[in-house]
Design goal:
Elements: H1 2-17, E1 33-40, E2 45-52, E3 64-65, E4 70-75, E5 80-85, E6 90-94, E7 102-109, E8 112-116, E9 119-120, E10 129-139, E11 151-162, E12 170-188, E13 194-205, E14 212-214, E15 225-234, E16 246-259, H2 261-274, E17 292-294, E18 302-320, E19 327-331, E20 341-345
Length: 362
């Protein structure tokens, strides 16, 4: 029996001593042309970005910006407008896009020609109403198969309604939140006391996550867009500022873009990929089919998309008390230029918001 156990131990030791670490060889795929061409109808200076994707399987590769390309915007009459180099991989298009006109993109680079599909500029988008509601929002971090690091935050969720106007419409939203609060500084009085003065402080936040897109609900008889989620504002603002500072509300800037169905489907596919979170059958990047192809060599793959969107901006002021479940949401009629962050002593900046603010045109 002892001899049998000894033989087993020898076999196990022999097996372990022969174990080798296997290093599989990964194929290094070629890098692909990436085109970022999102043009806005109300912007006379748009930008187009060209670069090569990182090679899959090559950990040392980096993005390579593309210079020397010839980039043209062409309308339905064949009139060309060239986008001129404005830095590495950056091409500036100085052209006023005309409503109800159609355009496509042409790119000549490294002996190849790339052409986009045609985009028609639509009428500017409209929102029927924006409103808010207190909700509990669940946040999770880490693996999708664990309950670790799950937290619940209470706050105000903003929603938007858009009524059906005769044709199905497709939209993308982009937001920016500017937190207003007061800090303080002291000046001694000379008699053992001090005066307290305000420091008007602000800081910008941008939404996390993938694209916020909206369309009529699938498998529904209604073509209205109802209760589409915009931004969430945490109720306990002391998660963001200290208890000796005073919360003075949020300035919320909303950009709304009207898309055509093709561009909406591209964002939807990209969003599905970005939201997959490590599931076993994740989509791969090449499944997000763009609308640009290489006409001189159809076998060459292109990443990215050409988009022309009509655009409208809205601004709102949101004020609430974390100890009371009520809030005020006020539309801002005047669009000030607001720096990303800053602080000013004693006197508020001209863009500082309050419920009783008087605007220049009033």
């Amino acid at each position: 029996m002892k001899r049998k156990i000894l033989y087993i131990l020898i076999a196990v030791v022999t097996f372990l001593s022969c174990e080798e670490i296997y290093h599989p060889e990964l194929n290094v795929n070629e890098d692909y042309l990436v085109v970022e061409a999102v043009l806005y109808d109300d912007n006379p200076n748009n930008y187009i970005y060209l670069y090569k994707s990182r090679e899959f399987g090559n950990l040392s590769s980096t993005f390579k910006w593309i210079s020397g390309a010839k980039v043209f915007l062409i309308n339905e009459l064949g009139t060309k407008t060239q986008a001129w180099p404005n830095g590495a991989g950056n091409y500036r298009l100085e052209h006023e896009l005309e409503k109800n006109h159609s355009y496509y993109l042409s790119i000549d680079i490294e002996g190849e020609t790339y052409i986009s599909s045609v985009q028609t500029i639509k009428e500017p988008p409209e929102i029927d109403s924006i409103y808010g509601q207190y909700i509990d929002k669940i946040y999770s971090e880490g693996s999708t198969n664990t309950t670790d690091n799950i937290t619940t935050k209470r706050g105000i969720q903003l929603f938007v309604d858009i009524s059906y106007q005769g044709n199905p419409e497709y939209y993308r939203f982009k937001g920016k939140k500017i937190l207003q609060y007061l800090d303080y500084y002291e000046i001694p009085t000379g008699m053992g006391g001090s005066y307290i003065y305000p420091i008007y402080t602000w800081y910008s936040y941008y939404p996390m996550g993938s694209f916020n897109i909206a369309a009529p609900a699938e498998f529904s008889s209604s073509k209205d867009i109802n209760k589409h989620q915009l931004e969430f504002f945490i109720e306990d603002y002391n998660d963001l500022i200290s208890h000796d500072q005073t919360f003075k509300g949020w300035i919320y800037i909303i950009d709304q873009y009207r898309l055509d169905k093709e561009i909406y489907d591209y964002y939807k596919s990209s969003k599905k990929q970005l939201d997959a979170e490590g599931k076993i059958f994740d989509p791969v990047y090449i499944q997000a089919e763009g609308n640009i192809s290489c006409t001189s060599n159809p076998d060459l793959k292109v990443l990215g998309n050409f988009e022309i969107s009509s655009h409208k901006e809205y601004r709102y002021y949101l004020l609430y008390d974390k100890n009371e479940e009520s809030f005020n949401l006020k539309k801002i009629p005047y669009f000030y230029t607001i720096p990303e962050s800053g602080n000013i002593k004693d006197t508020p900046p001209e863009f500082w918001e309050s419920l009783d603010k008087i605007y220049p045109d009033e």
